[in-house]
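Translate structure to sequence.
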């Protein structure tokens, strides 16, 4: 087992495609770290550099105590699961899982004809590792089947089994669930979390799905345009996003943003005035251009009296669309051309096409610098 460190790692493709830009990230031994960000932000490239499939342009990659920039992939003791896990179609599940191990462990032997006691000991060890992994993944009853005789989720688990039996120092997973349907994805997500808990192997997991990141990561590293935006536990990334990008990327429906200025210690945008969270440093930044951010769940139907209404925490808006989801409603609001999303108690009395009053929980508001987009706090 080992931790993984990126030290000032940059990857430039061709002349000027900076896929990863001066990445510093310290992944602890045994940690489940999720790299998340939009398409093209450099997640796969970062992962492939750890695997040794891509060479860093500059900086150091460290696995455990070893700088591995010059260590060939096969000697890095990592196992990677890709989005398009290619199983060998002509091999059984058993052989698919065992194949990599046989190649590695039986280097000096010719598998089919090896008879020495050493070879049979290795074979027995491989056999027990394959069966143990298959049992863990609940595919032990499928070992004799070929990939085409399996469901998508079962195939995915075979690919995981192939990685698990290697007992690597580090697991690298690149969107391993994206081929699965929604239900299976949620189920396999839970299985991966359990697996990590049981095996305790350092895992770096790449996804563009912020829900996957939030639910799976012990910590999550949010990337954009090759740059690390924030790395922290999911609650902190959600509740204290470092900048406007992170605030808008994590959370669904996304955070609402309103552009305006600090005037008289308050946020003002056109006719709208909102107070700031108590003691907020932006209050003293008179005239500063800022973005006011509020999550959909921090907006309430004023008529339900969840929060006392004041002149500084309320607004009127037309209810464009009201989606009834059962546990909550999503309302798409229009306040003088400004679009706002709110998730509301299903007991709300809103009607589509009709204006209503809303209150926001100012203590949950986020204020971002209008120029740098960094959170002011
Ligand atoms: N071999 C390559 N040659 C040139 N540019 C590349 C190469 N591989 C990746 N890139 C570019 O580097 C950037 C990062 O790509 P990368 O595959 O790491 O993104 P990603 O975050 O994994 O995206 P996705 O979510 O779509 O998989 C992109 O702009 C991509 O076009
Ligand atoms: Mg990718």
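Result:
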């Amino acid at each position: 087992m080992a931790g993984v460190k990126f030290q000032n790692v940059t990857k430039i493709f061709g002349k000027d495609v900076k896929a990863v830009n001066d990445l510093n990230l310290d992944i602890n031994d045994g940690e489940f770290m999720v790299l998340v960000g939009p398409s093209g932000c450099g997640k796969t490239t970062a992962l492939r550099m750890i695997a040794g499939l891509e060479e860093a342009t500059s900086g150091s990659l460290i696995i455990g105590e070893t700088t591995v920039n010059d260590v060939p992939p096969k000697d890095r003791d990592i196992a990677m699961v890709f989005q398009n896990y290619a199983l060998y179609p002509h091999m059984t599940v058993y052989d698919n899982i065992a194949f990599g191990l046989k190649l590695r462990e039986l280097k000096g032997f010719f598998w089919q004809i090896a008879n020495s006691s050493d070879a049979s000991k290795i074979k027995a060890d491989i056999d027990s590792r394959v069966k143990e992994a298959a049992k863990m993944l609940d595919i032990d009853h499928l070992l004799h089947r070929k990939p085409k005789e399996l469901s998508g989720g079962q195939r995915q688990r075979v690919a995981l089994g192939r990685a698990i039996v290697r007992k690597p120092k580090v697991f690298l997973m690149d969107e391993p669930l994206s081929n699965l349907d929604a239900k299976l994805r949620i189920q396999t997500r839970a299985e991966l979390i359990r697996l990590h808990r049981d095996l305790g192997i350092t895992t770096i997991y790449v996804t563009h799905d912020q829900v996957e990141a939030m639910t799976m990561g012990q910590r999550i590293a949010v990337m954009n345009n090759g740059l690390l935006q924030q790395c922290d536990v999911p609650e902190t990334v959600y509740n204290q996003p470092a900048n406007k990008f992170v605030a808008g990327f994590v959370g669904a429906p996304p955070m609402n943003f309103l552009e305006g200025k600090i005037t008289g210690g308050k946020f003002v945008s056109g006719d709208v005035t909102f107070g700031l969270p108590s003691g907020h440093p932006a209050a003293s930044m008179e005239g500063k251009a800022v973005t006011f951010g509020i999550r959909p769940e921090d907006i309430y139907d004023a008529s339900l009296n969840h929060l006392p209404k004041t002149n500084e925490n309320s607004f009127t808006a037309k209810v464009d669309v009201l989606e009834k989801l059962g546990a909550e409603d999503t309302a798409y609001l229009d306040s003088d051309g400004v679009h706002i999303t709110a998730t509301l108690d299903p007991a709300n009395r809103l009607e589509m096409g009709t204006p209503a009053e809303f209150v926001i929980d100012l203590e949950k508001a986020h204020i971002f610098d209008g120029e740098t987009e960094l959170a002011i706090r």
